[in-house]
Design brief:
By secondary structure, the protein is of the alpha/beta class. The protein has a domain of 104 residues. 31% of the residues lie in helices and 18% in strands. Helix 12 links the parallel strand 8 and strand 9. The longest helix is centred in the middle third of the chain and has 17 residues. The radius of gyration is 22 Å and the shape is globular. The structure holds pyridoxal-5'-phosphate (PLP) and iron/sulfur cluster.
Length: 450
């Protein structure tokens, strides 16, 4: 049974961590890392994660601990020492924030203007909260869904997306989404993402989803919700005050003839162990929701084929569909979590070989890169040259999908940008595209991590 206090959501942060008995299980150097690294990277967890998911006997190697608690090695030693000494000197909050901001800029070199360039236009005006990169699918970022029940230390999105969680704003945003969809009948899927949209109360989520069920929006066949709540707060679907309302809402969407897919961010089989997580899965499935699983492959967390094979096997048994394995993207404490592409491919392949065909609905490892979702389909030798065989699962130009292409093998490459075309070619085919009749909306990639 769950401890009673685990049933009510409470954010655990740097400032209240010591009120929890589990904090005493942290060795001094790990407690210090929370204070120091937690100034720079997000730290937020909750009683369920620290009581039910983290196995404290395995700390610091426990995968969920590594995923949620800031670790010393996530910062460059010089940066770590700077923040540590500022704290030791009792430096002002302003000095600490300035230093944290300086370090963040170095970790997360977003090209200037990315947040504004990504936004599509309607009647010449930018539409807030929407991204439209691949023809069939629009991403929707409701302002009220831009935090999470706990933060993954590898995620860098939360500080940029903190929104205004009020009903009127959600309603206006949702009206704009509906107007955009009416102007774009080619869109069949809406992917509601964040942050984590399941942080929203059901009443707010209803404001987001209901307008999509309008009779003249029959084009919207699938509504997906990207979420880590099954892992970090399954109570959302079981014991929260509006859990039942949430399931009723999903039932209504399904009854309106739309496919409801919960895109569950599932990093490790430990997340599927607790009874309440299983109950949440059962209840969601009972409400007609399809659950698909996706997550990045991360060093220190799930860089082991058996972990993935078990995740997919367990998922299939519980009625979920393995969907994507992602490559960790080029941001945040990437050095800590990064794996070379060759290693990602090996982990994927070994895991894929260990599951039955029902688990092989998964695709990956895939990079959500600038031109599209690029899958490492294989490593091979062609005409004496060692190459990565690559394939686009999604393309900024839909015609790019499914065209195999080749990069020179490089054991250290960890992202598409590190790769060079094979066979002495000057560029990849998408670097110099033939002009398409209808150019896709020009938008850089954004990680879909939830
Ligand atoms: C991954 C992704 C989608 C969804 O792609 P599917 O292959 O349909 O799952 C949509 N938009 C963006 C920007 C994405 O990265
Ligand atoms: S990776 Fe997903 S669940 Fe984790 S903090 Fe980022 S948005 Fe939230």
């Amino acid at each position: 049974m769950q401890a009673a206090e685990s049933q009510r959501y409470r954010a655990i942060t740097r400032s209240n961590l010591d009120r929890w008995p589990e904090a005493r299980l942290l060795a001094p150097e790990h407690r210090e890392a929370v204070d120091v690294v937690g100034r720079v990277l997000p730290f937020r967890t909750n009683p369920y994660v620290i009581r039910e998911l983290i196995d404290w006997r395995r700390v610091p190697d426990d995968p969920i601990f590594r995923l949620v608690f800031p670790q010393r090695e996530m910062l460059h030693p010089v940066d770590y020492e700077r923040v540590r000494s500022l704290l030791a000197e009792g430096a002002s909050g302003a000095a600490l924030s300035a230093e944290a901001e300086r370090i963040r800029r170095g970790l997360n070199p977003h090209p200037a203007g990315q947040l504004t360039d990504n936004v599509p236009r309607l009647d010449g005006r930018p539409v807030a909260g929407i991204q439209h990169k691949y023809r069939e699918t629009v991403l929707f970022f409701p302002a009220a869904g831009q935090t999470c029940h706990a933060y993954c230390t590898y995620c860098f999105r939360w500080p940029q997306f903190v929104g205004r969680p009020d009903l009127r704003f959600a309603a206006r945003q949702s009206d704009e989404l509906a107007a955009y969809l009416r102007a774009h009948p080619e869109v069949t899927d809406v992917l509601v993402t964040g942050g984590d949209p399941m942080i929203m109360k059901t009443a707010l989520l209803r404001r987001v989803l209901e307008p999509l069920l309008a009779a003249d929006l029959g084009q919207v066949q699938s509504i997906r919700i990207g979420t880590k709540s099954l892992a970090y707060w399954p109570q959302r679907f079981v014991t929260d005050a509006d859990a039942d309302d949430c399931l009723r809402l999903f039932e209504e969407v399904a009854a309106a003839g739309r496919h409801v897919a919960l895109m569950a961010h599932a990093s490790h089989p430990a997340e599927l162990e607790p009874a309440i997580a299983r109950r949440a899965i059962e209840r969601l499935r009972g409400a007609g929701v399809e659950i698909r699983m996706q997550a990045p492959v991360l060093r220190h967390v799930n860089d082991d084929p058996e972990v993935w094979a078990e995740l997919w096997r367990t998922g299939v048994r519980l009625g979920m569909v393995p969907y994507y394995m992602f490559v960790e993207r080029d941001t945040g404490p990437r050095g800590y979590f990064e794996l070379p592409l060759a290693r990602c491919h090996r982990i994927f392949t070994r895991a894929y070989r260990r599951v039955s065909g029902l688990g092989r609905t998964v695709r990956g490892p895939s990079m959500s890169a600038q031109p599209g979702k690029v899958r490492i389909a294989g490593i091979s030798t062609v005409a004496g040259e060692r190459v990565f065989v690559l394939e686009m699962l999604q393309g900024r130009d839909p015609d790019w999908v499914g065209r195999p292409f080749f990069a020179r093998f490089d054991p250290d490459a960890a992202w598409l940008d590190d790769l060079e075309p094979a066979f002495g070619e000057e560029r990849f085919f998408f670097d110099d595209p033939e002009p398409a009749d209808e150019p896709a909306a020009p938008m850089p990639a954004l990680a879909i991590v939830s």
